[in-house]
Amino acid sequence: xxxxxxxxxxxxxxxxxTLHQQVLASFPLCDxxxxxxxxxxxxxxxxxxxxxxxxxxxLTLSLKTELDKAxxxxxxxRRNWLRSQGLFQALxxxxxxxxxxxxxxxxxxxxxxxxxxxxxxRMLDPSSTTDKEQPNILGLExxxxxxxxxxxxxxQRMQRGLPKELEKHLKKKCLSLLCYCHPxxxxxxxxxxxxxxxHLAAQVDKDKKRTESLKESILEKTVxxxxxxxxxxxxxxxxxxxxxTLILDHRxxxxxxxxxxxxxxxEGKCELVVQKIKSELVDVQLDTYTPDAxxxxxxxxxxxxxxxxxxxxxxxxxxxxxxxxxxLGKEFQALAEEYGKLRQQIExxxxxxxxxxxxxxx
Length: 362
Description:
Helix content: over 70%
Strand content: under 5%
């Protein structure tokens, strides 16, 4: 259950869709959607209450305050370090330019030796974070290295001329940076460049702020794009499911219509093949049966039919005789068999007589 104070905070925070939008705006790093919040109202109330105590990154207000103070302190130390580091780099660049020109100068020789001695002393002098009992490099002590400093008068002369030389060097670098940022100002006079140089820091700061604003805008657009992408994918999935349902519901009907059309097609194709076969048979018959062959076949048929007719008449005559013989009974059958044997003997004797007569004539 929610307390009365939490309910009041929720009322002040927003209602309905506005509540969901404000919750999503308060926690941009969370992968949530308005649908998730709608389906889980208690979780939405918890986020509303939690938004009163934490920022958009998830830090509590007290921790955020401490973090801001630590960030300010860090920035202060960072500026001091960058200031000294920038000065050190400028001095090294001045020495390098002097070495490139190969022009002897007591000022630069003294400055180079001072820098080297100071660097060595810092390396030999243990800091508060290192072990003080650790042996020094090569057994050297800082006081031994300090003895290598140039003459005092040369050092003092170098210190008096250093601000002017450093100013000239830095001015040259600033003008080079100005020409790099605005190449169209390269041909302007030095006084005009110095005047424009005074506005360079403000312009760079303005460009930096504009870049940060663009980054924030890009981040917001990225989050919005991710939400829209998820919404688009969810809608696309719904459309796919609806399409699958339509396909499953109408597939059988479509398949039946398709099968019917295929059946009609194959029936028409089969009929065409049958007609083509009949046409080929007619062509074969026309090539095989010429008019002369048909006339000869007709004569042969007439002759065969006449012989068949005479054979049928003879068959009927024999059947009539056979029927008359069968009426006489078994006694006549024995006489018929004996008559048949006698006829065979007569035929054999006639054949033998014929053969004998032929042999005798030879």
